[in-house]
Each structure stands twice: as C-alpha cells, then as structure tokens.
Design the sequence.
C-alpha cells in the first residue's frame, strides 16, 4: 500500500489530471445534470400524484433509475479511459523511456490503472451525496447505497483491467479501444442476449437443470445490479425453477470478475516488457 | 563496461543484427557509426532491455541483459533515437517524475535536478512546459533525464540527430563533459564527423555487421589505397602462393574455401597492380582471372563521411 502511494506514475498522472480546471468543470457539470434529473423526476411525480406527495416506492424506482444510469456510464466510459493508457504512451514514444527506468512492471500497470479511472471514481463518489435526496423520501437504506458504491468501484476496476490488458498487448490505441469496447459489449449486451436465449430454451423444457443461463447472468453487470436492487428478479435461476444453482449470483459475479481482473493484470504485467531470455532454437 | 557477444536480432526472416561482438572498456567513449537501417538502434534497444535478442547476449558491468535486466536498467542511462515527452509537465517535473521512477528520494531529487539542469544548460527553462522547448532543448532534457540515477554507462542513440549546427555543438560540449566525468559512453550516429573528434574508438556497422573497429585514424589508414584482390588459378596453387608471398605490396594472403583461388590485400597504384599481374604471367603462374573486390567498408565509409562538413 505504501508502495502504491509512492507510485511515480500515479503521482504524475494525479498531478496532471487534477491540475486542470477543465476536469473539475466536467465534474460539476455531471453533478448538476444528475441533480436536475432527480429534481425533475420528483417534480413530475409529485405533480401527477393525487396528493402531491412523493412516495417511498417512487423514491425506490428513482434510486434504481439512477443506479442504472451510473452503471451505464461506468460501462461506457471505463473502456475509453483505460484502453489507451499503455498503447498511448507507446504511440507518443514515451513508453520506451519509462520501461528503461527501475519502476517495476507491476507498479507501472497498477499506477496506470488507478490513475486512468481515478476521475471516474471521483465522479461516482461525488455523486453519492445526491443520492441522499432519495434517502429523504425513504424506500432505500444507507447500506444499499454503500453496497452499490462498492459494486461500482469493483466493476470499474474489473472492466478497467480489460482495457489495460488490450492496451498493453495491442500496439495501436484505436484497435485496443475497439477490442475493449467489443468485449465490454459482449459482457453486457451479449451475455444478456445469450441469457435470454438459453433461458427460453430451458423453459421450453428441452433441457432441465441446464446451468448455462446462470453463467451468462453471472457475467452481466447490469443483471447483477438488478439482482442487488430486486433480489427476487432472478428467482428462476434457483433450484426450484429449473436452472438449479443456489449459489448467490452476486457472489458468482464477484468471483468471476476477480479472476478476470487478476488474469488481465497478470498478463499485462508480464507482457509490458519483453522477455529478454533468448528463445532456444526456433 | 559493455560486452556484446554474438548478438543477433532477426525480425522474421530479416537479420537486422548479425553476430555482433564488441567490448567497450570502462571510461571510454565508443562511437557506433552506420547508415540509416544499419542496426544501431536495434543494438541499443537490446542493451537497454527493450528488445529481446534472437541469440547472443551482452553484459553491462558484468550483468547479463537477459538474466538481470533490472540490474542492467539501474546501471545504464538510455536515450532513444526518437522519443516523446509528457508535454503537460514542466522541465523540473519531468525530471522529478523519472527520478521517482528510479526510486530516488524526494530530498535527493530536489538537490539533483538543479545540478542536472545546470549541466545541460536548461536552468532558465526549468519552469517551462516541456512541449514548448525547442528540439535541441528537448534532447538535452532527455540527456539530463538519462543521467538522473547517475548511471556508469550511457547508451545514447543519435543524440544530435535533427539538430541545427549550433545545437549540435552544444550537445557535443555536454557529451565531452560527461566523458570527463568518467562515464562509459556508447553513442551512435549516421555521420562519422559528428563522432570522430570525441570518441576513443569507433565501430562501423553495416547491414547488421560490424565491418570495422578501431580509432578513426586506424580505420582511415586501413582504407587508404588498399584493396582486396581475388586471383583464380588453374592448378599450381602452391607456386602461386610462393609468388604472391614475395610481392612487397601484398599482405594478408590466404587460400579461399573453393580451393582454386587466393585472396590478398594489395596496397599500391594501378600501374604497380598491372606490373604485378604481368610478372605473374611471366613466371608462368596460371591465372584464370584476377579481380578487385570493392570492400564493403569502403562504401560504408564513403557514405558516412560524405556531405558533412568536418568540424
Ligand atoms: N520492428 C521491426 N520490424 C522489422 N524490421 C525492423 C524493425 N525495427 C527495425 N527493423 C529493421 O532493422 C534494420 C535496422 O534498424 P535500426 O536498428 O533501426 O537501424 P539504425 O538505427 O541503424 O538506423 C532496418 O532495416 C529496419 O528496417
Ligand atoms: Mg536508429
């Protein structure tokens, strides 16, 4: 941890990123937009309700809406923030020099990962107080908000590691971007689609106790978010309803993405610098 | 000290570096000269642990580049031929970042950086953003960067390329200072005169091969008026050997692998060459053919010395 705080890459990138006023303007704008969205929602809702009240169940649906918007934002932005960090340095011809320093590959990769998503993390954390508007009206607990925040941060790092992976392995940023967005799209829309298909195959009774839908659901960040917010949403995945897996979906999500995260980072760290060993005979 | 042993690099089928052998003693300045594409940057990248060799190896101060790349990195200062800068950083911050990357403490960095800026004449530009510096200043800043961890060995890939004459002179002055500090310097250029004056010895590389090595004078001497001649004979090889051995202008006589021809270096005028051939025929030496081989070195030497004012 101490090492991480002294990470030169992280230090430098923080200095650059938080030096510019433009960044804070962007943050302020995001928070403003989010606030307007919430206030507009409450306004419309109270106007339509017969007694001019904002009820807890509506507060709850607003919380869900907000959560999905932020999740969508994370999945959309994270690949863009991370897929260019190593390849970009390669293209700007600064990577070579960095690689000849004493900094370990692990330190460079971690520094790059954390710094590249730092602004997004800040945006997400800074938006949490806005959620407190939702609290005022009830329907959700502070614990849920904290859980969602943790879930966001986890997802940012998991998908960020995929971006870093492609950025390290692929020379050109544009191709690394396309690959990262492609994989992200597969893990969000692709797995949802495959889940729906495999589920309907299950329900048509062609296969009983087929675990395939579970695996697709477990990889899908949006479905997992829904699972958090509406624990009953994926009841059909349990043993009573055909798929036959009682292991909680959120835990499967955490485990599978922890593995993805570790594998992505390990390969990136290994591949950042060339293996100097002479390959014996080709 | 740098030792390069049988270093070979292939890009697919193409051999960019072909069994390079070279030893550079501690405290000496070695100039690596060759045309564009000769393999200079390939060699330097391998030494800087940025590129893996296909075969062979090298040692920096006794540390193997393949087995101890981390130690090697801490002992070399490397300046690539093309490099970029983090343009939103100020010159001081730029050096500070790399200092931190070498694990130098904050307090040491703040002492060291002004000295380095002084050395490369950039004290006045310390608070300028790196992207507004001129090309020459950027090169000097990069040189200062390569010195930040006080490496004993410097590997500088065309540090003066793309600079105007004044900036080149300035760069050269700094390099001389580094030489006086006792650094072991490996420096490359595609033009010889740039290096001739400051190097203890030079190596000429062409198409991935080291074609000559020595002091500038030695190499020039070797080239002056000498040519390689191959004589193909019809039997009686030994009698021909005896004949050519007696010729005063012939040196390095050797039988070729084909078993029917001889090769030797001839140092003399065209008239003397004609006279020797006449004599050979008079002595009944059965010469089938007699041909001059242009040495590669000569071409290379012409190429790297032409068109540049010797300063
Ligand atoms: N990554 C690469 N892939 C294929 N060929 C390369 C690569 N890098 C260099 N080469 C080739 O290797 C040769 C040597 O290049 P280089 O070492 O850069 O030469 P120099 O620095 O002397 O100009 C050149 O012919 C170049 O085209
Ligand atoms: Mg080069």
Sequence:
């Amino acid at each position: 941890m101490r090492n991480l705080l002294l990470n030169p890459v992280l230090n430098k990138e923080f200095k650059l990123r938080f030096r510019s006023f433009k960044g804070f303007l962007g943050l302020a704008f995001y928070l403003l937009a989010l606030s307007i969205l919430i206030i507009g929602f409450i306004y419309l809702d109270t106007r339509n309700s017969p007694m001019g009240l904002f009820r807890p169940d509506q507060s709850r649906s607003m919380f869900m809406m907000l959560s999905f918007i932020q999740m969508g934002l994370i999945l959309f932005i994270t690949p863009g923030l991370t897929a260019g960090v190593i390849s970009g340095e390669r293209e700007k011809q600064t990577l070579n020099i960095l690689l000849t320093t004493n900094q370990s590959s692990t330190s460079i990769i971690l520094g790059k990962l954390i710094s590249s998503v730092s602004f997004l993390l800040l945006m997400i954390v800074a938006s949490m107080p806005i959620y407190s508007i939702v609290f005022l009206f009830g329907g959700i607990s502070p614990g849920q908000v904290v859980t969602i925040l943790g879930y966001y941060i986890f997802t940012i790092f998991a998908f960020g590691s995929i971006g870093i992976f492609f950025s390290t392995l692929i020379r050109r940023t544009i191709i690394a971007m396309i690959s990262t967005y492609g994989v992200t799209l597969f893990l969000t829309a692709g797995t949802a689609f495959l889940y729906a298909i495999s589920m309907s195959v299950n329900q048509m009774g062609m296969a009983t106790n087929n675990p395939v839908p579970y695996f697709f659901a477990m990889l899908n960040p949006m479905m997992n978010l829904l699972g958090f917010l509406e624990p009953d949403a994926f009841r059909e995945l349990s043993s009573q309803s055909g798929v036959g897996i009682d292991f909680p979906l959120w835990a499967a999500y955490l485990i599978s993405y922890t593995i993805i995260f570790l594998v992505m980072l390990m390969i990136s760290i290994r591949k950042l610098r060339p293996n100097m060993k002479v390959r014996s005979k080709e | 000290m740098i030792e390069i042993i049988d270093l070979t690099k292939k890009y697919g089928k193409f051999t960019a570096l072909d069994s390079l052998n070279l030893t550079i003693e501690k405290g000496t300045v070695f100039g690596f000269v060759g045309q564009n594409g000769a393999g200079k940057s390939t060699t330097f990248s391998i030494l800087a642990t940025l590129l893996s060799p296909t075969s062979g190896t090298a040692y920096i101060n006794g540390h193997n580049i393949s087995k101890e790349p981390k130690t090697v990195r801490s002992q070399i200062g490397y300046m690539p031929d093309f490099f970029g800068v983090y343009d939103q950083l100020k010159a001081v911050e730029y050096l500070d970042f790399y200092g931190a990357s070498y694990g130098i403490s904050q307090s040491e960095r703040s002492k060291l950086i002004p000295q380095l800026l002084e050395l490369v004449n950039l004290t006045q530009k310390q608070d300028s953003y790196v992207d507004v510096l001129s090309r020459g200043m950027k090169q000097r800043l990069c040189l200062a960067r390569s010195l930040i961890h006080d490496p004993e060995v410097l590997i500088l890939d065309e540090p003066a390329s793309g600079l105007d004459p004044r900036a080149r002179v300035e760069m050269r002055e700094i390099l001389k200072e580094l030489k006086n500090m006792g650094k072991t310097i490996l420096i490359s250029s595609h033009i010889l005169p740039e290096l001739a004056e400051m190097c203890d010895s030079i190596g000429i590389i062409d198409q991935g091969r080291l074609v000559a090595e020595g002091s500038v004078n030695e190499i020039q001497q070797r080239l002056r008026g000498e040519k390689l001649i191959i004589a193909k004979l019809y039997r009686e090889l030994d009698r021909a050997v005896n004949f050519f051995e007696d010729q005063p202008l012939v040196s390095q006589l050797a039988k070729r692998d084909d078993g029917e021809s001889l090769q030797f270096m001839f140092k003399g005028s065209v008239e003397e060459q004609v006279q020797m051939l006449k004599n050979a025929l008079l002595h009944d030496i059965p010469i089938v053919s007699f041909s001059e081989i242009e040495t590669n070195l000569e071409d290379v030497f012409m190429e790297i010395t032409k068109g540049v004012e010797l300063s």
Q: What stands out?
A: Chain A has one domain: 2-46+57-272. Chain A touches chain B through 26 residues (CB under 8 Å). Residues B 11, 14, 16, 34, 36-42 surround adenosine-5'-diphosphate (ligand 1) (CB under 6 Å).
